[in-house]
Amino acid sequence: xxxxxxxxxxxxxxxxxxxxxxxxxxxxxxxxxxxxxxxxxxxxxxxxxxxxxxxxxxxxxxxxxxxxxxxxxxxxxxxxxxxxxxxxxxxxxxxxxxxxxxxxxxxxxxxxxxxxxxxxxxxxxxxxxxxxxxxxxxxxxxxxxxxxxxxxxxxxxxxxxxxxxxxxxxxxxxxxxxxxxxxxxxxxxxxxxxxxxxxxxxxxxxxxxxxxxxxxxxxxxxxxxxxxxxxxxxxxxxxxxxxxxxxxxxxxxxxxxxxxxxxxxxxxxxxxxxxx
Length: 276
Prior knowledge:
This protein is α+β, with helices and mostly antiparallel strands. It contains 9 helices and 9 strands.
């Protein structure tokens, strides 16, 4: 929390220098980066330590997807779409979309929007890691007792084996691969007046569309055309193992993260047992 005030101050200072009136700032999310709503200019600011390469790539991808009509949130049009540095922090400014409070995104609408997003992503050629590279990061985390000191030996073995075997199974499955969102879960989907929009492209990677679908509610996969059901089942368990590993990181800052980690370990064990 000690990093929040200077990060907020940096974002407000940058916004003001760009002609965006930022008298007030509301923290919307604090995780690996800080997400703010600046008022009265009503802009969304994402603040990182200076030099955050993912923020630059995220802006490029979002703009190029918007150009081909994909359902994505876009940078604020009042300023040049780039990353701005100040006092050791870097900020990017995005359009703030007022959520439709009464709207619920149906599985069919979710699947349709994700399918259109994937169609737009197939038109892009940008360097990104493979989805199994992200799995490897989770494996390294689980293998480090220093970074995951609260994991028991049995749970560490369970997670490590699940990550390595499922990653290998997904890689050997074959089939088409493409640019993916990386984490199109419900927290990265907005219900707006203009329809369903996806946000947060810092986790883009390459792989089968089933890896993206594994982050969405199960009902969404039932409406997505051409899904490989067996691969989707493997990806769902793999993603569950990944997000479980993140929660046991001693540096994890997600509220109730440790409780989620314990619950997801139980779910993972049950999923592995039922799948054989």
